[in-house]
Amino acid sequence: MRMIHHFIDGAAVTDAAARLGDVFDPALGKVQAQVTLGDAAMVARAVASAKAAQPGWAALNPQRRARVMFRFKELIEQHMDELAEMLSREHGKVIADSKGDIQRGLEVVEFVCGIPHLLKGEFTEGAGPGIDVYSMRQPIGIAAGITPFNFPAMIPLWMCAPAIACGNAFIIKPSERDPSVPVRLAELALEAGLPEGILNVVHGDKVVVDAILDHPDVKAVSFVGSSDIAQYVYGRGAANGKRMQCMGGAKNHGIIMPDADLDQAVADIVGAAYGSAGERCMALPVVVPVGEETADRLREKLVAAIADLRVGVPTDPDAQYGPVVSAAHKARVEAYIQMAIDEGSELVVDGRGLSLQGYEDGYFMGPTLLDRVTPTMRSYNEEIFGPVLQMLRASSFEEAVSYPTGHQYGNGVALFTRNGDLARKFMSSVEVGMVGINVPIPVPVAYHSFGGWKRSGFGDLNQYGMDGIRFYTRTKTVTQRWPSGGAVLDQSFVIPTMR
Ligand code: NAD
């Protein structure tokens, strides 16, 4: 049995007495490896290694840190096929989609290759008589990232790339369901010239998460996962005085106006609802057509498009998506489909019961389409996170917008229309963090930043972009003057003002 070890101080670390977790191959439905689950002592070991290495790394001039990031980027590109294959085998997404997962993380590495520029501070000459004021951004020391199963390359890279480029040390606690890719990334970072101890990987479950949240030397924690856990992690870390950034679940809506290019919208929605088996926080699992006629035309086209979808093993180049991540998750998604039917929605396409020849034990699910979903249904209010598209019919634009705005989650939303005026009104008023106009999956590019509203995000700074740089640095502001002649120029017992 293949074993997956921690990566601390530049080397694989194991613990013979540790608990082990099974890592499945979702296409085969079989255990393919075991991961060592850490504990508080392993977290302390990783923090000690980070603490020893971090001051030297932070003292390097930022151009030299940028050169390591450039080399890291090259190595990820060179190892793209190997990483994608490793990712697909543990996650189940098709190879092309795994490459997209890695690429979106790589783009954050590209962004932080500009770290000398990103870290430049501000300067005011003559803020008072002979007084200059300047500010600088300094690393916070040691940060950690706790990541979900659904983007095992992109999300660790969202976090660790800005953190280390800013001069911090970083500890990744990957999802225990697909832990191999973050370890491989840490090995490549070492090969790129990152000092030992600057990027450590500690595997585990709640035990390791709690140890990270309680360790006094970890100054900031970034979390991405489901909302209840995000809120818990946020609360515990913040109570311990840490800087916290916790992204949660989602239920993104795609609103279809009667004037939309329906063929393009259908192509976009099918890709965004079923791609990666719907296991994306920026998937579009709810479609809101405006008007009965739009809804009927949309439904007809969706049914036709769904019939053309191919579900297959990750290595099948013609498959649009692969299995869901685990047997338990498959059962959960199926239970939501049954709940939606019991609540009164209409089952238009049933994706349950799909079996692939030769892969009968794999966690495959066909695409499901449900119509006449209503906003009071539990299956609508909760995140399903599977290949399930729910149609919620609205009679007006205002009614349609009220659904994403009123929903507990506010990660992403999309509007399909040809009306620019309406689109402007929409982007300005909708209560969701990331908005697409005729764009189904509006994941911002690496030099903007990613974050949802309401129960999709706890904390105030987003992932990557300038927010990422702010999250992993502290501002220090210096007010200075150089009195000449050594004489006391003034003395005051009043707070200095600029009157
Ligand atoms: P999850 O919440 O089960 O796990 C996320 C991380 O938390 C993992 O590392 C896991 O080990 C850890 N964890 C799990 N239970 C814990 C507990 N009780 N205490 C402490 N830590 C715990 O999420 P998942 O199933 O891996 O990922 C899917 C979820 O992530 C979905 O809800 C999805 O919407 C969300 N997600 C959100 C974003 C975003 O940016 N908003 C991005 C990707 C995924």
TrEMBL record:
Signal peptide (UniProt feature, chain positions): none
Record key words, sorted: NAD, Oxidoreductase
One GO process term, biological-process aspect: L-valine catabolic process
The EC number(s) this enzyme carries: 1.2.1.27
Superkingdom per UniProt: Bacteria
One Gene Ontology term of the molecular function aspect: methylmalonate-semialdehyde dehydrogenase (acylating, NAD) activity
Record protein name field: methylmalonate-semialdehyde dehydrogenase (CoA acylating)
Native source species: Sphingomonas hengshuiensis
